[in-house]
Amino acid sequence: MSRFLFSKPRVTALLCPSTIMAGPPNKRQKREEYKTSQREDGTAELPKKKFYRQRAHANPFSDHQLTYPISPDHMDWAEYYPAFISPEPNPVSESTAVPAAPSTPKKLTRQVEVADIGCGFGGLLVSLAPELPDTLLLGMEIRAQVAEYVQERVKALRVQNSGTELYQNAGCVRANTMKFLPNFFNKSQLSKIFLCFPDPHFKARKHKARIVSTTLNSEYAYVVRPGGIVYTITDVEDLHNWMVSHFDAHLSFERVSEEEQEADKCVAIMRTETEEGKKVERNKGKKFVALFRRIENPPW
Amino acid sequence: MSKLTMPYQCLKQCGNLLIAARGSTIETFNLESRSLVSSWKCPSSKPLVSETSAQEEVTAVESPAPAEAAPEESVIPPVKRRKLSLSETPAEENKNWKHNNKGKNHRQAAASTGLDSPAVIALAVTSNGHHVIAVTSEDKSIRVFENSYINLKHELKQLSQRTMPKRPCGLAITDDSSTIISADKFGDVFSLPLVFQETPIPSKNETPVPATTEADSVLFTPAANHLTVHSVRNRKALENQKRQAKPKPDSSGPEFEHKLLLGHVSMLTDVALHTYNGRHYIFTADRDEHIRISRGIPQAHIIEQFCLGHTDFVSRLCIPSTRPEILISGGGDDELLVWDWENGNLLSRADLKGHVEVVCHEHGKAATDGSVDGLKIAVNQIEWIMVGGEDLVVVGYEAVPALFVFQLTAANTLQHIQRIQLAGNVLSFIVNSEGVVVSVDTVHALFSSSEQRNMAEAVDVQPLSTFVFEDQRLVPGPAFEGAEQRHEVPAEELGRLGALLYGLENLRKREGDGRDED
Ligand SMILES: C[S@@+](CC[C@H](N)C(=O)[O-])C[C@H]1O[C@@H](n2cnc3c(N)ncnc32)[C@H](O)[C@@H]1O
């Protein structure tokens, strides 16, 4: 079970039955029974998607019953990447004026560097993890059920590959990144962000819900270090144009050349391994890819 | 009908003037003579209050009965009103306004109170003292006034009125008095020139919105086709989009120069501008516990830092001029936080709740339903002042009849040194090296944002109180003249007035609020 240092004792959605998709009680019960057994076994069996389905859209503007760390320093990453817990004891808090947090989270030997925002069922995450074995990857997904599915998926893959380091570097949190990205990551912490097949929100009235906007791009620029890359892919041409024009217009980003883009192994994986990407493949649809490099801030 | 004296919801100092917003009016006092020098009243916004449409609206919204049967004296209970103003979308805002003006009798009654017109919800002044800037609520307008003197007689002369896309809730003016920074409830921060230019200039954006976004709503083409849409829901959305009529072109924004500087996906609560080591910064605070520090214009798209440590909404930011390297913040938490904002490091915390509890006990009030844990406090103002070589910080809390004075120590901690009891809940105050002018609630019961106070005991309560510093301690000062003039509030207006005076507690997230719709 995932655990943060709560910003306050809000019930985590994963524990709160009222937040689970309303369905016939016996269906919900089955789902709960299934999940309990899934958790207890430490099973190598991959989770079944049908027990984790959830309505397609979660409103990014509402409060939900979200838990999120007060700040990146309050985040307990050890739960997500137990193989990377630092053997050294925690250093004593520098600022003595402030009473230390109730329990200082265990330190990891490295920080999360890659975020898959709106990771869905985690296809990209689990394909990318073995390719970037020295890097910690984090899937972020607003839908509680779907995030839980990815957590179980990673756990099962770790069991299947026990004895190896495989999948130890992958994790997933439930998070509304449109509001709380800076609660998880410090300035310049990330080297890559993936925005794969984001919800298109066709109607102009709903454009504010798009995961790419002039103002949100400033937050991506904050968490991505200079030289880092934001990857985007979509099958909706209008959304592609939207993302390109908004990143192009943002002074902290520049478009990565097509040549460099095609040479990046992450691009090939992004094209084929996300769940949405596979659907598009089956329907022989088009995929639009664009990469943007975070450039240095100008002097001021 | 009991007569209630209209209180002041917002005070600002501009040179030797006190600018005081009272419902839909702005009164100006001379701070030296403590006398009223001028008064401006917001005109009622005609298009929204046309007799028939207001009536019809009532019928449509409230009951299926014919218009004549609409109960004229019916008033939305305060509780409901507060809810409405919390969750309002722009559409609801208009509705609220119509509600507020429903019924002829009701509106006539309101006319005598200054609440028949849009209320002033925020004030700012330029550092050169030439201008006063006000936000009026229902018409979402930013109004710029000039302090003008005709034959030595002061007048607030309105120079411009600009209607913003969303209701502004925070205002700041750049040091050079050239630019207004406006933060709104939907999380966006805009800049607009103080001086309004007649010629419509297309909006430019600091984090520029590419041309296509504007074009989107005008040149309508379906955003995708069946070949490019694969999931069932996307296909559905596309179908809907095709069925939809051409979108109305009213989304193109206001026709005056304004730039989008930055945005939060949250409700903004405060904005502050700061200059440090020759660099300009914009500080923004939101309902989701964030304090963001961005570069100033023209690099406002660059976020320099976040100060994260609040566990409830942030409502006020304060940067002491003598210590430009620190930030004091407060909100729905039980503590004030002091920050090394440049590095996002928390320097100290100061307990607030304990001091408020003392006030509760002094008033014989068991803190909220007997349980001290149930006491919720929300900071409504934090002001710094240097007096006799000491840095003092004065703090007010929503619906608490007291002011609290802290000393900012050399170690950047806040030490409580004085508590000032007030005759009513604190609404707003100004602090200068002479002392404090504070607006107290003449209408609501102590500790309450909705209950009317017992008028027998409130007869002598003045809407403005003054305190002066004597050896760094505040002692009662002389009264203001003219402030007690009765702008009366009919009891039915209590609900709307409550919403105007008290909004912070609504920012608190409630258990079960925004529950997953999934
Ligand atoms: C169309 S799916 C794509 C999933 C995956 N990236 C893929 O390509 O298969 C978009 C996902 O983004 C998630 N999402 C939308 N808004 C989000 C937000 N504000 N924070 C986190 N996830 C969000 C949705 O719940 C959904 O699972």
From TrEMBL, chain A:
* Pathway(s) the chain acts in: tRNA modification; N(7)-methylguanine-tRNA biosynthesis
Q: Which residues form the active site?
A: 199
| List of residues binding S-adenosyl-L-methionine | 118, 141-142, 176-177, 196, 274-276
Q: Fetch the Pfam families from UniProt.
A: Methyltransf_4 (PF02390)
Q: Which SUPFAM superfamilies match?
A: S-adenosyl-L-methionine-dependent methyltransferases
Query: Where do the segments described as Disordered lie?
Result: 20-47
Please give the Gene Ontology molecular function terms for this protein: tRNA (guanine(46)-N7)-methyltransferase activity; tRNA binding
The organism's place on the tree of life at top rank: Eukaryota
Compositionally biased intervals (Basic and acidic residues): 30-47
Q: Which reaction does it catalyse?
A: guanosine(46) in tRNA + S-adenosyl-L-methionine = N(7)-methylguanosine(46) in tRNA + S-adenosyl-L-homocysteine
Q: Which PROSITE patterns match?
A: SAM_MT_TRMB
Q: What is this protein called?
A: tRNA (guanine-N(7)-)-methyltransferase
From TrEMBL, chain B:
Recorded hits in InterPro entries, A to Z, give: Trm82 (IPR028884), WD40/YVTN_repeat-like_dom_sf (IPR015943), WD40_repeat_dom_sf (IPR036322), WD40_rpt (IPR001680)
Q: Recite the UniProt keywords alphabetically.
A: Nucleus, Repeat, tRNA processing, WD repeat
Its annotated function is as follows: Required for the formation of N(7)-methylguanine at position 46 (m7G46) in tRNA. In the complex, it is required to stabilize and induce conformational changes of the catalytic subunit.
Task: Please name the source species.
Answer: Calycina marina
Q: What is its main location?
A: nucleus
Provide one Gene Ontology cellular component.
Answer: cytosol
Oxidoreductase found in the keyword field: no
In Gene Ontology terms, what is a biological process of this protein?
tRNA (guanine-N7)-methylation
Keyword tRNA processing appears in the UniProt entry: yes
Q: Where is the composition biased (Basic residues)?
A: 97-107
Entry's Pfam families? WD40
Subcellular localization, as worded in the UniProt entry: Nucleus
Would you identify the family this protein belongs to, as annotated?
A: Belongs to the WD repeat TRM82 family.
Give the protein name, as stated in the record: Guanine-N(7)--methyltransferase subunit trm82
- At the top level, the lineage of the source is Eukaryota
Q: Where are the WD repeats?
A: 307-349
Pathway listed: tRNA modification; N(7)-methylguanine-tRNA biosynthesis
Annotated region (Disordered), positions in chain: 85-112, 232-256
